[in-house]
Q: What sequence folds into this?
């Protein structure tokens, strides 16, 4: 690596923002190689230190190590997801197993583990603060879970497994990216798009123009099975084409993921067994708040029963509506299919609430929602101020950078907003860090939110659905978790918490999008400036629980599929040809199949569990939402949208990272154990849950290994 490489030294830009204008594809590989080499030398010096192990010369030294590698990896991992090129994807494939081997070289180092283990065994005699004690414990757990106690032959086997798993995860993600891009549906005649707004049709034309196609329209695929436009399109044949394009992704062809799934699940099960666990799910959940697969199942079951009860009743009503419509038109009837659900649900919602989604979108213009909704909420709760920084470089023209200031004017960090879909960007929405907050390293946070809102035609406003508004608030909740962190050690900072806790702040902040006082600030017509009529606002809020049965069911089916895959023993893992059959049989065995309602993700494009860090952990959204809805009730009992409530939550949760047991952090804030009832009420499922056999109102934590996680989200 040459001295002029942009990663060679910490960035001189404010908050160590990466110098995106100086980074090119040639910068990455030498920086990665130099970063791995430098950290390995740092770690060898720690392990070979002749001085007796101490907290400072071992644990803190580990926290300080790897700064070069962290600089390049944070930029590269973010940009391969949001702005990737073919060259970057090729480099990602090359580096994935090498990075896995690098991590193993650290965590399987016997001398290094001996120092950490000696400190952990003697921790009671060390004068450590609570945060220091937590850091030592996290490192010790990380070493043990990584296999540090295995014999050398087992370590060799583990190294091979980890390198292969890293390669498979990378290939899976790249296949999904390719299959989603290639799976877009082309439309030749404008009349086929009847039901869409002018802005949506313009966005489809713009997507086609970006592919070099004039006079055509391109319906791009979202990351989920159910595609948003199915609720609006009148053309049933086009709806079917879009649905089938969605569910067939990454099955067969150059981007086939079924063989990858088969091998990946088997290798995960083998690794879990090698590490002394009955299954990959047992291995993962021992380090989460849930604690065990049994605890996850006991939480999922009552909500699944309630959702299935609701959605099966809806199915009967929708089929009756189809039959009436066909009879009135003198047409042959047809059975309700997955591509019909959203369309006829929307018709029923319009009839019940006099609410047309197309009539609502003009009131949700992106910049106004961000400025007068998201930022306003952060100001009211936490006293934050956001100032646009157009003088700082970005990695794409779409990206906006905001400097964040605390109530007293003190600078906190940078927030990057990257909201438009584009070529080379992974589907879905997420938050990530470019710089993690740490007082040890004198670093303030640089965080990014990514969405995939279709770009409108030139000159047209960016209008959002209410679901997209909610997503904007959700991801900003993650951003606040990173921005408001006040932690010394980076391993414990911000969103570096258990997966079934990390979704808690984000799901909480969704609720402010529904708050009438907040809605009234940002819901204004993009052209006239007219406020959203009060009657329409009431109908929007009343309709929020209308589709909860479907939405809850599709999520729960995906969560159950995740658990089913990862509770398998190695010898029971199916071959590639049986991957989709396994899904169906698993849901049937659980009594969870519902005709017409597909899981939110089918396995071949289920990025969360086969490429990202949510394997055996997709349940975490629901587990965290229990905490979020409890906290929502707490806020409404303590003044609603107020600085006093916000500052209490900030001090108790958002600023703390993983500096203490997260279950204890919640109990100390909330004053007791989590209660599932506010969640069921929020989703409109409380009656069905009670009628479906009842459930324990308190969510009990797992009883296995203490709940912790050793990875960065």
A:
């Amino acid at each position: 690596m040459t001295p002029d490489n942009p990663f060679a030294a910490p960035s001189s830009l404010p908050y160590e923002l990466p110098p995106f204008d100086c980074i090119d594809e040639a910068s990455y590989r030498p920086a990665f190689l130099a970063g791995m080499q430098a950290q390995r030398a740092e770690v060898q010096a720690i392990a070979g230190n002749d001085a007796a192990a101490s907290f400072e010369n071992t644990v803190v030294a580990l926290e300080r190590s790897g700064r070069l590698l962290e600089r390049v990896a944070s930029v590269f991992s973010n940009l391969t997801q949001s702005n990737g090129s073919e060259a970057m994807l090729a480099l990602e494939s090359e580096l994935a197993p090498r990075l896995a081997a690098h991590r193993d070289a650290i965590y399987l180092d016997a001398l290094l583990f001996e120092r950490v283990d000696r400190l952990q065994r003697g921790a009671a005699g060390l004068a450590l603060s609570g945060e220091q004690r937590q850091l030592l414990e996290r490192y010790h757990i990380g070493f043990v879970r990584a296999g540090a106690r295995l014999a050398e032959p087992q370590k060799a086997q583990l190294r091979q497994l980890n390198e292969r798993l890293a390669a498979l995860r990378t290939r899976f993600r790249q296949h999904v990216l390719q299959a989603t891009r290639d799976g877009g549906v082309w439309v030749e005649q404008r009349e086929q798009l009847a039901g869409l707004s002018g802005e949506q049709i313009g966005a489809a034309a713009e997507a086609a123009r970006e592919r070099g196609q004039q006079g055509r329209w391109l319906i791009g695929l979202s990351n989920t099975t159910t595609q948003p436009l199915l609720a609006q399109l009148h053309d049933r044949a086009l709806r079917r084409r879009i649905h089938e394009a969605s569910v067939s992704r990454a099955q067969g062809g150059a981007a086939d993921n079924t063989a990858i799934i088969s091998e990946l699940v088997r290798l995960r099960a083998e690794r879990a067994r090698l590490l002394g666990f009955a299954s990959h799910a047992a291995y993962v959940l021992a380090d989460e708040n849930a604690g065990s697969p049994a605890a996850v199942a006991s939480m999922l079951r009552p909500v699944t029963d309630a959702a299935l009860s609701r959605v099966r009743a809806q199915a009967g009503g929708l089929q009756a509506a189809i039959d009436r419509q066909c009879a009135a038109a003198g047409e042959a009837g047809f059975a309700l299919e997955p591509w019909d659900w959203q369309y006829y649900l929307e018709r029923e919602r319009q009839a019940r609430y006099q609410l047309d989604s197309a009539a609502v979108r003009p009131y949700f213009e992106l910049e106004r929602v961000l400025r007068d909704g998201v930022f306003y909420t952060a100001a009211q709760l936490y006293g934050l101020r956001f100032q646009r920084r157009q003088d700082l470089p970005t990695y794409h023209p779409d990206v906006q950078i905001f400097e964040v200031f605390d109530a007293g004017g003190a600078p906190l960090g940078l927030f990057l907003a990257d909201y438009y879909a584009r070529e080379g960007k992974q589907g879905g929405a997420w938050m990530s860090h470019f710089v993690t907050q740490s007082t040890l390293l004198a670093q303030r946070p640089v965080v990014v939110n990514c969405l995939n809102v279709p770009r409108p035609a030139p000159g047209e406003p960016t209008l959002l659905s209410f679901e997209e508004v909610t997503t904007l608030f959700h991801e900003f909740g993650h951003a606040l978790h990173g921005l408001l962190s006040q932690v010394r050690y980076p391993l414990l900072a911000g969103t570096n918490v258990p997966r079934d806790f990390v979704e808690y702040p984000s799901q909480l902040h969704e609720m402010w999008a529904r708050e009438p006082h907040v809605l009234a600030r940002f819901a204004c017509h993009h052209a006239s400036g007219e406020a959203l009529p009060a009657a329409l606002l009431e109908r929007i809020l009343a309709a929020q629980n209308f589709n909860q049965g479907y939405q809850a069911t599709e999520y729960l089916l995906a969560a159950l599929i995740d658990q089913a895959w990862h509770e398998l023993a190695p010898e029971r893992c199916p071959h590639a040809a049986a991957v989709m059959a396994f899904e169906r049989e698993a849901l049937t065995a659980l009594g969870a199949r519902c005709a017409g309602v597909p899981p939110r993700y089918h396995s071949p494009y289920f990025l969360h569990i086969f490429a990202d860090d949510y394997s055996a952990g997709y349940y975490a959204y629901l587990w965290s939402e229990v905490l979020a809805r409890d906290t929502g009730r707490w806020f409404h009992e303590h003044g609603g949208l107020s600085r006093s409530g916000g500052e209490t939550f900030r001090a108790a949760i958002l600023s703390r990272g993983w500096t203490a047991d997260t279950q204890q952090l919640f109990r100390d804030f909330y004053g007791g154990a989590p209660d599932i009832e506010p969640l069921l009420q929020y989703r409109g499922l409380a009656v069905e849950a009670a009628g479906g056999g009842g459930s324990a109102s308190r969510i009990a934590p797992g009883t296995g290994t203490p709940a912790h996680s050793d990875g960065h989200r």
About this structure: Residues 293-329 form the longest helix (37 residues). DSSP finds 27 helices and seven strands in the chain.
